[in-house]
Amino acid sequence: MANSTIALSVVFVILAISTFVAFWAGRKVKMDLEQWSVAGRGFGVLFVWLLMAGEIYTTFAFLGASGWAYSRGGPALYIITYLTLAYAVSFFILPQLWDFGKKHGIQTQSDFFQARYGSKYLAAAVALIGIIFIIPYLQLQLTGLGIIMEATSYGGIDKASAMFIAFGLVAAFVFTSGIRAIAWVGVIKDVLLLGAAVFLGIALPYIYFGGISEMFTQLATVKFTHLTLPGSTTNMGYGWYVTTVILTSLGFYMWPHQVPSAMTAKSGDTLRRNACFMPLYSISMPLIFFVGFTALLVVPGLPNGDMALLTLVRQTFPPWFLGLIGAAGALTAMLPAAALLQTSAMLFAKNFYRPVFSPEMSDDSLVKMSKVVVVILTVISLYLALYSTVSLVALLLLGYSGVTQFFPGIVLGLYWKRMNLVSTAVGIAVGEIIVAYLVLNKMDPFMGLNAGFVALAANFIVTVVLASVTSPGTAEAKGSGSQ
Amino acid sequence: MANLPSLGAVCWASVPFIAMCFTVPLWDRVYPLVCGMPFNMFWLVSWILITPLFMWQAYRIETAHIKAQEKEGKPNG
């Protein structure tokens, strides 16, 4: 049998099993809106952990992080830091958001803006902005899938067809079983990914250098500056590190798809407890970095750093093993993609289309419409993934710059009575305009700082000033009233 | 509105922030290699392990704080 046949068969067998699990998970629950989106708010600590942790283990963590360790070096360290700190931040946001969400029946992030600030137009705008910045994240997953298929087929399947096949599967399990499927298949994915990270992170340095220590000793001799900031870049120094960590750790739970996952929890306390232990989940990241660093010494000069992990695995192990790693990678792309697609479809149908254009729409037709949106968004991101060459980490950072602009509106909105429609709307608008300007003019990093952070700082100042000088009246009445 | 978190919880939770983020110029170096890793990576890995301890302290303080507030009749939310 050809190498590619073996590797691909392994990938597809594992994906088939996962799809089966997904259908099974959704089989006996009647899928109304509440079930499809937040699983009836009945998940305990373990399941919420799986769901939330599962969503961070994306193809970004797998291929992107090793890719940045390979191509940039030091700056990649921000990934370890922000994942750990994001959970510490969530301790002060998610339980409060859960309480508010329970009281007001919130299913999406946009619902929060509706309930807190009492404007369907603000909610609709937030929904659209969320979808816009989810697209690069989706594109990231697709690009990752393309890389995986290309590597596991030994170049035999072209990227486009591979992406179509895999995304067909994703759309299928989003359709049938909603958020439960994502949680269950997440178990398979997390086991595979953790296993892969631990094994590869230890085995690869061992095989080529005799151990992690020997690998780093050699790297420190050959490429000393690669290991600290700014690594192999010129503009990612301390200022960039600090501002990027702040932006991304504050922004982590500003992703619209994180809100429904948090709402599946049984109580706010579940989330508070989770926040204490979730930092441990990022322990796999250094191991993935080891792979990237080993690749830098063994297979230097790859045009695309995101290929580093798979190239090294393909060169070192037999085809069936490449298939196993490929399958783990494919799941880390498909599951987050499923969550992202489901969230953006809900946002579009529930928070944008229905309130603005068709208030009488029933919940059933809303779910139907969401499914159409899933298909449309898949096609858009497929198109982008096929025609762009941006690195996986760069795509994620773009998304973060956009979604973190919701931070003042959500967090100050939870804690501060004076927050109102005007301060929030203007703050978000200012933030997004600065992000668009800096990113489109390729001014990121801006004066050594992360562009999204610069926008967030301006947004924050504008929000606080406006909230202090305007009347809190309407917002408070809507915010604390029943919906 | 949510009640503000207790000062104690905020203090405990901010320690990992200081250690992993703001102090980067102090620990961003290659040598000494510790446990086979460059010093900066060793530092961050240690803090992944230490952070839950600090968060658990924050959790204990915060839950006590919430209970106290409920007694005073200031329900959260």
Written overview of the protein:
The complex is a heterodimer of chains A (483) and B (77). With 483 residues, chain A is an all-alpha fold. Chain A contains 22 helices and no strands. Chain A has one domain: Sodium/glucose cotransporter. The longest helix of chain A is centred in the middle third of the chain and has 51 residues. Chain A is globular and about 65 Å long. The C terminus of chain A is likely disordered. Chain B has a domain of 52 residues. Chain B contains three helices and no strands. The model of chain B has no long low-confidence stretch (mean pLDDT 91). The chains are: A mainly alpha (483), B mainly alpha (77). Chains A and B meet through helix 5, helix 6, helix 10, helix 11 and helix 13 of A and helix 1 and helix 3 of B.
The chain pair with the largest interface is: A-B, 51 and 41 residues
Main sheet of chain B? none
Secondary structure tally, helices of chain A: 22
Rg of chain B over CA atoms, rounded to whole Å, is 17 Å
Q: Count the helices of chain B. How many?
A: 3
What would CATH call the class of chain A?
Mainly Alpha
What is the helical fraction of chain A, as a range of percent? over 70%
In terms of structural class, how would the helical and strand content of chain B be classed?
Answer: mainly alpha
Alpha carbon gyration radius of chain A? 22 Å
**From N to C, what is the helix and strand string of chain A?**
HHHHHHHHHHHHHHHHHHHHHH
CATH H-level superfamily of chain A: Sodium/glucose cotransporter
* Number of DSSP strand runs of chain A: 0
Strand percent estimate of chain B: under 5%
